[in-house]
Design brief:
Length: about 425
């Protein structure tokens, strides 16, 4: 057996980011820039008002106060979007809205609240500082400024900055297109009658969801019987149109473990036993002329899920040019549970809050890698090392979260509100 770290290292050493593509900015969410992105414009694009009020020449308001207001006539209204080409002459003002261009000749904006708000003959009660309430052209960003450095994952905020600053397209590491293949003669697709000896293919939809959640694209979800020719043909086809392939099933020691049989000796494919529970039988290699990473995960549903979290997720991140991170937290065991003596053990746990505010974790169902009942209750995997044979109650465990942290926090807040309501 090899360790989890050894297997993961071997995988990541063989993963290259997919080719770069140039896409319209709004379509790059979650993708990583390949080069520094510079501004094409100045921001603000023109001097504009930060308040609804009046554009004035400051000198015209000399001595204005609440006791001695100064009246100046409104000669025009300027809305956001107006070109504001008409200059402001001395002794006049213009009504101006937030975001509207400041007219030539005006040097200050007076807030509506500092006047009586009259539409045509307003009384001004203050003389603000020169330049008050004006957002100057270029004070935020200048052409050529660095907006988004290379290797940045684009989020909603970066999209806003880029489109504002005149950047229409950006080069990013392309979307990672993933194919998912479930193997096994016993599998029936979702929604079809389940005959004797058959089960519903749950790995296919589960992995499809995991891949989507990880920000990659699912281009193919298929099922294969335990037939050599079909398996080879399907995998070869996917090597042409996918950037990463995930199979489940057919990798242990059974007489019909076809995946292992057809892929042994192909590309850099290696089938190994990893010191982990669940998820011991693993296969990985890079295949075909496009060097597509292929993961052959064990068929048991929990084994497939754990294998995805531990190996496939970091590989997907890396293939997308993103930095590899593990979604970890810690929790305190509310009860003791056993841990495989020679393997790193991933125990499905439900998270709650202990009296000190920390995460408290309780096993969700039994440890069998076929057990689906408790899986829906699990928020995290508690990780215990090969030397640990028992995780004792009260001890701290590392967690791999299966849900975003804020979702877990939201549920815990709901639960504590409900408890407070009941007591
Ligand atoms: N003699 C041995 N047998 C097994 C060993 C071993 O070391 N020696 N390892 C066991 C472990 S651990 C695991 S994990 C499994 C892995 O088996 P395979 O990857 O070959 O998977 P299958 O045999 O095809 O299926 C295992 C199990 O999972 C169910 N399954 C498969 N695909 C799906 C799917 N898409 N959706 C839902 N469930 C699925 C399948 O029906 C089996 O029950 O091998 C052990 N055996
Ligand atoms: O290693 Mo298997 O994944 O225990 O069930």
């Amino acid at each position: 057996m090899i360790t989890v770290e050894e297997h993961l290292e071997r995988i990541l050493a063989q993963i290259e980011p997919v080719d770069a593509v140039t896409l319209p900015v709004p379509r790059t969410l979650g993708m990583v820039t390949t080069a520094d992105v510079l501004s094409q414009a100045e921001l603000p694009r023109f001097d504009n008002s930060s308040m609804d009020g009046y554009a004035v020449r400051r000198a015209d308001l000399e001595g204005a106060s609440a006791e001695h207001p100064v009246m100046l006539p409104v000669v025009a209204d300027i809305a956001a979007g107006d070109p504001a080409s008409q200059p402001l002459a001395p002794g006049q003002v213009m009504r101006i809205m937030t975001g509207a261009p400041v007219p030539p000749g005006a040097d200050t904006v007076v807030r509506l609240e500092d006047t009586d708000g009259h539409e045509r003959e307003p009384q001004f009660r203050t003389q603000p500082e020169e330049g008050a309430n004006i957002r100057r052209a270029g004070e935020d960003v200048r052409p050529g400024d660095l907006l988004v450095p290379r290797r940045t994952r684009i989020g909603p905020a970066q999209i806003a900055v880029l489109v504002s600053a005149g950047v229409h397209e950006v080069e990013v590491v392309g979307p990672v297109r993933v194919a998912v293949l479930s193997t096994g003669d016993e599998l029936v697709p979702v929604g079809e009658p389940v005959g004797p000896g058959q089960i519903v293919d749950s790995n296919g939809p589960m992995l499809e969801a995991l891949v989507r959640e990880a920000g990659a694209e699912v281009v193919h979800v298929g099922r294969l019987g335990d037939v050599e020719g079909q398996t080879t043909r399907q995998i070869n086809a996917r090597l042409e149109d996918a950037d990463l392939i995930i199979t489940t099933g057919g990798v242990s020691k059974g007489a019909f473990d076809i995946v292992k049989k057809v892929l042994t000796g192909q590309g850099s494919m290696e089938f190994v036993e990893v010191a982990m529970q669940p998820g011991k039988p693993q296969g990985f290699g890079v295949l075909g002329r496009r060097h597509v990473p292929v993961f052959t995960l064990p068929g048991n549903p929990v084994s497939a899920l754990v294998s995805f979290e531990v190996f496939v997720r970091p590989a997907l991140e890396s293939r997308g040019g993103r930095r590899v991170s593990q979604h970890t937290a810690t929790g305190l065991a509310t009860e003791s549970w056993s841990s495989a003596s020679d393997r790193r053990t991933y125990t499905r746990v439900r998270v709650s809050r202990d009296s000190g505010g920390a995460y408290a974790v309780t096993p969700a169902g039994g440890p069998g890698s076929h057990l689906l009942g408790g899986l829906a209750q699990a928020d995290a995997l508690a990780v215990s090392d090969p030397e640990t044979v028992e995780v004792s109650a009260g001890s701290e465990v590392d967690l791999i979260l299966l849900r975003p942290r804020r979702e877990i926090e939201g549920r815990l807040e709901d639960e504590s509100t409900q408890e407070a309501g009941q007591s």
